[in-house]
């Protein structure tokens, strides 16, 4: 990845109703699946072109876990956040919110929305990876979060793990600065 992004690692695949709950929560923070003017949602095809679909169909496709999907969330009619949904290991779903191209204010709004979502979904959260420079590869991110292996190259700026799971990643903690956020999450920085 070459852009600023947040990757939310979540236990279990979401069915349609769970994903609907997630998107409703994000919408309360101003990040909506439905385009504000067009009244539909947008998937992105393999070339990155928009494919207009009813929001319900997008929720259904994510709920079916048919494979990786890219979609757009909307902050306004002309400002979007691409969300890449993929699966690692059969029991972990990753939602990556790409924040490149947003203003600082828009980035903060999207980041705050994701942070609020994670606090609400804490029991299902494995980690939130924050990479402001977009320098780490998906495989390195996955190895770090799922297997506690530090990347040989660039590191993400921070990873927020559930505080009760820190003991499961001792290699990640070696030489790291760990801060308990007091909300069930701890930030790890190198």
| Helix and strand element order | EHEEHEEEHEHEHEE
The 3D shape can be described as: globular
Overall average pLDDT: 92
Query: Roughly how many Å apart are the termini?
Result: 20 Å
Question: Could you describe the largest sheet, including whether it forms a barrel?
Answer: 10 strands, antiparallel
Strand content: 25-35%
Assign a percent range to the helix content.
25-40%
- Low-confidence stretches are none
Give me the secondary-structure category.
Answer: alpha+beta
The count of helical stretches stands at 5
Strand ordering within the main sheet: 3-2-4-5-6-1-7-8-10-9
Our Rg estimate from Cα atoms comes to 16 Å
Quick recap of the structure?
With 190 residues, the chain is an alpha+beta fold. The chain has helices at residues 16-28, 55-64, 104-120, 138-147, 170-173, and strands at 5-11, 41-44, 50-53, 69-76, 79-88, 92-98, 125-131, 158-162, 177-180, 185-189.
Description:
The chain contains five helices and ten strands. It is globular. Helix 1 packs across helix 2. By secondary structure, the protein is an alpha+beta fold.
Features:
alpha+beta, 190 residues, single chain, ten-stranded antiparallel β-sheet
Layout of secondary structure:
Blueprint: E1 5-11, H1 16-28, E2 41-44, E3 50-53, H2 55-64, E4 69-76, E5 79-88, E6 92-98, H3 104-120, E7 125-131, H4 138-147, E8 158-162, H5 170-173, E9 177-180, E10 185-189
Antiparallel strand pairs: 1-6, 1-7, 2-3, 2-4, 4-5, 5-6, 7-8, 8-10, 9-10
Helix pairs in contact: 1-2, 1-3
């Amino acid at each position: 990845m070459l852009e600023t992004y947040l990757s939310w690692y979540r236990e279990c695949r979401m069915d349609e109703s769970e994903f609907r709950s997630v998107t409703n929560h994000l919408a309360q923070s101003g990040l909506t699946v439905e385009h504000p003017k067009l009244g539909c949602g947008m998937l992105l095809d393999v070339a990155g072109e928009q494919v207009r679909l009813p929001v319900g169909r997008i929720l259904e496709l994510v709920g079916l876990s048919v494979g990786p999907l890219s979609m757009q969330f909307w902050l306004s009619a002309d400002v979007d956040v691409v969300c890449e949904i993929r699966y690692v290991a059969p029991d972990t779903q990753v939602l990556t919110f790409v924040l490149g191209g947003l203003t600082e204010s828009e980035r903060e709004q999207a980041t705050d929305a994701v942070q609020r979502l994670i606090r609400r979904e804490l029991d299902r959260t494995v980690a939130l990876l924050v990479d402001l420079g977009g320098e780490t590869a998906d495989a390195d991110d996955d190895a770090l979060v799922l297997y506690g292996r530090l990347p040989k190259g660039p590191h993400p700026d921070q990873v927020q793990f559930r505080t009760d799971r820190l003991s499961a990643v001792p290699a990640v903690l070696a030489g790291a600065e760990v801060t308990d956020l007091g909300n069930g999450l701890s930030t790890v920085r190198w």
